[in-house]
Amino acid sequence: MEKRTLIIYTVITLMGFIFAVMSGYSQEDVINVEDSAFEKKMRPAVPFLHDKHNETAGIDECNTCHHVYEDGKENEYDSSEDQECSECHTINKGDNSMSLVKIYHLQCKGCHQKKKAGPIMCSECHPR
Ligand code: HEC
Ligand code: HEC
Ligand code: HEC
Ligand code: HEC
Fold it and tell me: For residue 4, what pLDDT is reported?
C-alpha cells in the first residue's frame, strides 16, 4: 500500500473509533422520554430529541431539568443527569410528593407555557 493511502486509512479508522467512544458516553442517543418506573404505560414513549431539543430551545444549563435540591432549595451548582427522574420522584401518590406523571408534565409543559413555545396538547407529546 502506498504510504499516503495508509495514513489516510489510519486517520479514518481513528476518527471512527473516537466517534464511537464519544457517542457511547453522551446523551445524544436519547430520543424518547421513557422512564423505567412506568411499568404499564397507557401511552407510547414521548419523542424527545434530547440534544437537538435543548439546542433549539436555547437551554444552556443541564440542571434546568436535571436539578438537585438542598434544604428545600435548588442547588444551582449541582446537577443530577446521572439519575432518572423517578429515582427521586416516586410514581404513586400515596405519599405527599407529586406523582411522577405530574412532575414530567409540570417541567415539560410548564416551560412550554412560560416560553409560549413547544407543545402543550396531549397528542403533540403523545403521538398515536
Ligand atoms: C429540557 C430538559 C433537559 C435538559 C436541559 C437536559 N436534559 Fe438530560 N434528560 C432529560 C430527560 C427528560 C431525560 C430522560 C429521562 C431520564 O433519564 O430521567 C434525560 C436523560 C439524560 C441522560 C440519560 C441518558 C440515558 O441513556 O439514560 C443523560 C446522561 C443526560 N440527560 C444528560 C444531560 C446533560 C449532560 C445535559 C446538559 C448538557 C442535559 N441532560 C440537559 C431532560 C433534559
Ligand atoms: C436528585 C433528586 C432529583 C432528581 C434526579 C430530579 N428531581 Fe425534581 N425535585 C427534586 C426535589 C427534592 C424537589 C423539591 C420538591 C419536592 O420535594 O418534590 C423537586 C422538584 C421538582 C419539580 C417541582 C418544582 C419545579 O422545579 O417546578 C418538578 C416539576 C420536578 N422536580 C421535575 C423533575 C424532572 C422532570 C426530573 C428529571 C429530568 C427531576 N425532577 C429529577 C429532586 C429531584
Ligand atoms: C426550560 C424550558 C423547556 C423545558 C423544561 C422543556 N422544553 Fe420542550 N421546548 C422548549 C422550547 C422553548 C421549545 C420550542 C423550540 C423552538 O423554537 O422550536 C420546545 C420544543 C419542544 C418540542 C418540539 C420539537 C423539538 O424538539 O424542538 C418537543 C417535542 C418538546 N419541546 C418536548 C419536551 C419534553 C418532552 C420535555 C420534558 C421532558 C420538554 N420539552 C421540556 C422549552 C422547554
Ligand atoms: C410537553 C409534553 C407533554 C404533554 C403536552 C403531555 N404529556 Fe403526558 N407525559 C409527558 C412525558 C415526558 C411523560 C413521561 C413519559 C415516560 O417516561 O414514559 C408523560 C407521561 C404521561 C403519562 C404516564 C405514562 C403512561 O403512558 O401511562 C400519562 C398517562 C400521560 N402523560 C398523559 C397525558 C395527557 C392525558 C396529556 C394531556 C392532558 C398529556 N399527557 C400531555 C409529556 C407530555
Answer: 78
pTM: 0.89
- Give the closest residue (by CA) to ligand 3 atom 11: 57
Q: Which atom of ligand 4 is nearest to the CA of 118?
A: 1
Tens digit of pLDDT for each residue in 84-97? 999 999 887 666 67
pLDDT, one tens digit per residue, over 25-57 is 455 578 999 999 998 888 888 999 999 999 999
Domain boundaries, the chain: 1-29, 31-125
Pocket test residue of 33, 54, 112, 125 for ligand 3, highest count of atoms within 8 A of CB: 112
Atom of ligand 2 nearest to the CA of 98: 18
Looking at ligand 1, which residue's alpha carbon is closest to its atom 18?
A: 84
Name residues whose C-beta falls within 8 Å of residue 120's C-beta, 6 or more positions apart in sequence: 109, 112, 113
Strand-pair partners of 57: none
Give CA separation, 35 vs 11, 28, 41, in Å.
39, 17, 10
In words, the CATH class of domain 31-125 is: alpha beta
